[in-house]
């Protein structure tokens, strides 16, 4: 943990050079992200991209802790944040503190992230006052997919005032940054200008203080769906499918293993 950027360092980047954020769920991916990113999030997106769940609602504290511990081993420089899973904080500040403290103690993360704006203001304030840095998350909040009625763009037209009020509430509560998910780019810019803390966009336009993507999405490893806001920087899923098909063909044709893969030794 020595040498990692702190939540305070991230806060101090407001209005400065863009804060580069990425998710990671394993040690090797955390090591790769650590080399280039300022903040690594163990997102509850892991339920969908790693565990095949239909949404993030089934993600548990145990899953977040297991992946969080793996990611912590791979980070030397990036600030580490772990998502609070659905059901672990919504009952109230005390429940949120108990579970956030557990995530921090058992993973070694430096902060937690939770979804929600105005209705989470008291909870965020409670955590921050007791030593737990919090990253907010407003706009499209996937844990509320059933009340939002799908993964739709949030804050269009009149609804923009609600998302702005949510973001303001998160900042007012003492969060060190806030994720803005799936908003019109103009609203992302407006919220970024209005808040004293860094906004980290995912599908919220080019004017946020930083950006985040789900690593499996940007590497082309997750085939479930393809959000408009993702740029694919690699096609690792296709590369893996080709590699596995080539391996299967080689085994069937007795082309693998080759002489270089075979141990020598006298037959008895
Ligand atoms: O779970 C996740 O990966 C997230 C990011 C997309 C912000 O919450
Ligand atoms: Na999340």
Automatic annotation (TrEMBL):
The active site is at 181 (proton acceptor). Binds 1 Mg(2+) ion per subunit. Its EC number is 2.1.2.11. It catalyses: (6R)-5,10-methylene-5,6,7,8-tetrahydrofolate + 3-methyl-2-oxobutanoate + H2O = 2-dehydropantoate + (6S)-5,6,7,8-tetrahydrofolate. Keywords: Cytoplasm, Magnesium, Metal-binding, Pantothenate biosynthesis, Transferase. Its cofactor is Mg(2+). It comes from the Bacteria. Pathway: Cofactor biosynthesis; (R)-pantothenate biosynthesis; (R)-pantoate from 3-methyl-2-oxobutanoate: step 1/2. InterPro entries: Pantoate_hydroxy_MeTrfase, Pyrv/PenolPyrv_kinase-like_dom, Pyrv_kinase-like_dom_sf. Mg(2+) binds at residues 44, 83, 115. One of its GO terms (molecular function) is 3-methyl-2-oxobutanoate hydroxymethyltransferase activity. Coiled coil: none annotated. Homodecamer; pentamer of dimers. Belongs to the PanB family. NCBIfam families: panB, PRK00311.1. This is 3-methyl-2-oxobutanoate hydroxymethyltransferase. It comes from Paracoccus broussonetiae. The gene is panB.
């Amino acid at each position: 943990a020595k040498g990692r950027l702190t939540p305070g360092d991230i806060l101090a980047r407001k209005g400065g050079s863009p804060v580069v954020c990425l998710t990671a769920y394993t040690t090797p991916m955390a090591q790769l992200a650590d080399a280039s990113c300022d903040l690594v999030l163990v997102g509850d997106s892991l339920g969908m991209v790693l565990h095949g769940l239909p949404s993030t609602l089934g993600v548990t504290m145990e899953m977040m802790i297991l992946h969080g511990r793996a990611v912590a081993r791979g980070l030397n420089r990036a600030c580490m944040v772990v998502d609070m899973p659905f059901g672990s904080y919504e009952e109230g500040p005390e429940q949120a503190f108990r579970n956030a403290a557990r995530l921090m103690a058992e993973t070694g993360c430096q902060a937690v992230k939770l979804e929600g704006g105005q209705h989470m203001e008291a909870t965020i304030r409670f955590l921050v006052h007791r030593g737990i840095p919090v990253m907010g998350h407003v706009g499209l909040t996937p844990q509320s997919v059933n009340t939002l009625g799908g993964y739709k763009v949030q804050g269009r037209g009149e609804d923009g005032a609600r998302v702005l009020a949510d973001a303001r509430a998160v900042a007012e509560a003492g969060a060190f940054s806030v994720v803005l998910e799936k908003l019109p780019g103009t609203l992302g810019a407006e919220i970024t200008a209005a808040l004293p803390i860094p906004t980290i966009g995912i599908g919220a336009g080019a004017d946020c203080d930083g950006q985040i993507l789900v690593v499996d999405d940007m590497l082309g490893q997750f085939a479930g769906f393809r959000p408009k806001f993702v740029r694919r920087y690699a096609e690792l899923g296709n590369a893996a499918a080709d590699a596995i098909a080539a391996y299967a063909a080689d085994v069937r044709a007795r082309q693998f293993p080759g002489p270089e893969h075979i141990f020598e030794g006298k037959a008895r």
